[in-house]
Design the sequence.
């Protein structure tokens, strides 16, 4: 049975729609970009071969800086939004919700600033 | 207590493929998120020069940590990536929802085909180095 439009609860804004769309679009991007990152770093190069010099060399090229900046932004925000959804599922008490989500927000901001800082400002 | 009863219900609820796929997606998602937290902080240490960075990277070169990468991170990322593609496909092409369980089985076959050879490659590289 169709519920009349006037009785359906409408969200105040489109935030959840955009979050849903962002998760899916970033998923496709990350499938390709994080996939290549893992295959290259772990299968082709190998963890033992990675050191300061290797990453400094990689960041000589603006292309790889941009690549890493994309990975950081899309990967970290995709994860942050996922954690927000998970907290919504398990933390029901209103007070705890505010506390836990504020902590998440601070951690997410801190990490993205710290990560972007090193990628953008690094000088060998 | 609430968490224990929740876990009990999550394990005993007979949601079949869809529920298992969802639960694994959630667990691997949290795992990858926590790894990223560590990974971004360690890359940040590049700002402090080779002395500090290479000293901390020593953790990644530990035998136990490399085992964790193969059986934790790599496994988790691969499952999350493949399951995520399945979710995106179903969301963008809703008629596929009828076949979600079959798609999950196909996904597990692709997972095995991708994971087993690359895990063997990483493990053999670990033992060659010693």
Sequence:
């Amino acid at each position: 049975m169709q519920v009349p439009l006037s009785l359906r609860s409408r969200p105040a804004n489109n935030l959840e729609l955009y979050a849903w769309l962002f998760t899916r679009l970033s998923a496709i991007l990350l499938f390709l970009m994080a996939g290549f990152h893992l295959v290259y770093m772990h299968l082709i190069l190998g963890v033992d071969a990675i050191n300061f010099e290797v990453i400094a060399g990689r960041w000589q090229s603006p292309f790889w800086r941009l690549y890493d900046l994309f990975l950081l932004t899309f990967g970290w925000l995709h994860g942050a939004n996922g954690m927000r959804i998970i907290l919504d599922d398990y933390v029901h008490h209103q007070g705890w919700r505010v506390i836990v989500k504020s902590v998440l927000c601070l951690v997410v901001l801190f990490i993205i600033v710290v990560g972007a800082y090193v990628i953008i400002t690094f000088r060998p | 207590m609430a968490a224990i009863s929740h876990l009990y219900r999550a394990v005993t609820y007979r949601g079949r493929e869809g529920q298992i796929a969802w639960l694994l997606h959630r667990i691997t998602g949290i795992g990858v998120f926590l790894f990223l937290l560590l990974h971004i902080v360690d890359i940040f240490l590049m700002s402090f020069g080779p002395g500090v960075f290479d000293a901390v990277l020593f953790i990644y070169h530990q035998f136990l940590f490399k085992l964790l990468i193969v059986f934790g991170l790599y496994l988790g990322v691969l499952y999350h990536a493949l399951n995520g593609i399945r979710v995106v496909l179903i969301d963008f092409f809703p008629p596929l929802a009828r076949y979600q369980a079959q798609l999950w089985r196909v996904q597990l076959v692709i997972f095995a085909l991708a994971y087993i050879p690359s895990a063997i490659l990483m493990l053999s590289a670990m033992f060659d180095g010693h």
